[in-house]
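Lab manual, section 2.4: Encoding a predicted structure.

Procedure: take the sequence of the chain (139 residues), apply the prediction step described in section 2.3, and record the output as structure tokens. A sample record is shown.
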Amino acid sequence: MDKYLMIKTRDEMLRINIEHILYFEADRNYTKLLLAEGIQFTFAVNIGKIEEMLTAQISNLNTILIRVGKSHIVNKKHILQINLPKQKLLLLANEGKPRELIVPKDPLRALKDSLETEVLGITKGTSVKESENDENKDR
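Recorded output:
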């Protein structure tokens, strides 16, 4: 079943399929929303209020969208690459064109660790090779 987010302001209302969200980006008292199809919206609402709306409307929010630092909420399903030294997060949109976000190292590292734990079952400080070696010992 599709999950939808409804964003209401004084003058407008937007209903969005969660799967189509690429990211939210803070810009002072405004928040930019970019959909995977390349469509962009700007709201006169800060990103904290957007996060409150997300939390109130979507159960298991962190399985789909995750806050990355002070300025971004990204859709985990669209993450293609995390580059810590360059502080870059690459998201793949539906049109096949990657979108690059510049994110501070600490939130980016936390995102990387979270995804590794979620996808690979690796805890912080354990490399992929160490995890593979542990699996081979069990066989």
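Check your result against the sample. The two ends are 38 Å apart (CA to CA).
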